[in-house]
Amino acid sequence: MKDISSDKFIEALKNHDMDKLRDIPKSDLHNHFTLGGSRDYIKLQTGIDIPFCKEVLSTMQEMHNWNDKYIGEKFNNKEMRKLLVDATFVQAKHDGIKVLEIGEDVWGLGEFYHDKIEYLINAFQDANQRIAPEIELRLQIGLSRHCPIDYLTKCLEHFWGNEIFYSIDLYGDELSQPIENFIPIYKKAKSQGLRLKAHVGEWGTAYDVKKAVELLELDEVQHGIAAVTSEEVVEFLINNHIRLNITPTSNIKLGRVERLATHPIKELYRSGVDVTINSDDILIFDSDISKEYMRLYNADTLTAEEIDDIRINGLRRL
Ligand SMILES: [Zn+2]
């Protein structure tokens, strides 16, 4: 698949021209907005320096420790939360993002928006219009996997019925509670017409990916890279048109994948799985979309033409 930007995109990759690469339309469908912002913008607005993590982390706890040290309390109030939303649009604009899927954790509604869903929606829509109206915002509802189901269900009452929400995602510690616990929430989300996503197969197995897709009726999986270890699961993903929103640098920095050259995206894409390339946590991993494309090209994980095909796939309306 090619589009009007394909020739320029392929040329920019081959010439290692980051400025030209940034100009070309792309999507970011796996971006945790509190960590998705522009480092320069945050520094300019607050004086706070947030260095990216240089070493490879080996547990989610180490990532949480990084988060506590550099983000944590400093950004834990209404004003700073809005600043992080703004910073994410500034970053996305700078990187030529045209489709951005981000959203707020359900617990954030009480914490940062006075329990008023319209304040929450407005924070994202206002930043979108003010900073980057050219970006299509796909607003997501976020669930932390360690939270008790009763608590999440109660928080979600405020979110249901608002047509602006595009998708729902489950993230945090993949091993904290069984995926079965989330079936009622995902049934409700499906009845609301939301696109169903969850983080699976980053720390878990190929079997966990298949099980989550079947039980929650997922449309998309965040990560899902463990699927590569099972031919049966790869077939299953292809036959059911399940999209994997993959984040290569994050996988390396969290020790999920040893080398970029052999990242599972290579085999998954070439097998025919619907994959996209995304940032995950830009502030921690130094992973904006143009950098991800360039790194995959430089490591010879995929060809420029293949990366272009994945770029166009990410822009597709589903
Ligand atoms: Zn993620």
Characterization of this structure:
The protein is of the alpha/beta class and 318 residues long. The chain has a single domain, classed as Alpha-Beta Barrel (TIM Barrel). Helix content is 46%, strand content 14%. It has 16 helices and 8 strands. It has helices at 6-14, 18-23, 39-46, 60-70, 78-94, 108-112, 117-131, 149-156, 183-191, 206-216, 231-239, 248-253, 265-271, 282-285, 289-298, 304-315; strands spanning 26-28, 97-105, 136-144, 165-171, 195-200, 220-223, 243-246, 274-277. The protein has an 8-stranded parallel β-sheet with strand order 1-2-3-4-5-6-7-8. Helix 8 links the parallel strand 3 and strand 4. The protein is globular, with a radius of gyration of 18 Å. The chain starts with 5 loop residues before the first helix and ends with a helix. The site of zinc ion has 6 residues, from loops.
Radius of gyration: 18 Å
* The CATH C-level class name: Alpha Beta
Structural class: alpha/beta
What is the share of helical residues?
A: 40-55%
Fraction of residues in β-strands: 5-15%
Question: Could you say how many structural domains there are in total?
Answer: 1
Biggest pleated sheet? 8 strands, parallel
Distance between the termini: 16 Å
CATH architecture annotation name: Alpha-Beta Barrel
**CATH H-level superfamily:** Metal-dependent hydrolases
User: What's the helix count?
Assistant: 16
Q: Strands of the biggest beta sheet: in what spatial order?
A: 1-2-3-4-5-6-7-8
Give me the count of strands: 8
Element-level helix/strand string: HHEHHHEHHEHEHEHEHEHHEHHH
| Distinct ligands, ions and cofactors found in the model | zinc ion
Pfam family, one: A_deaminase
Cofactor: Zn(2+)
Protein name: Adenosine deaminase
GO cellular component, one term: cytosol
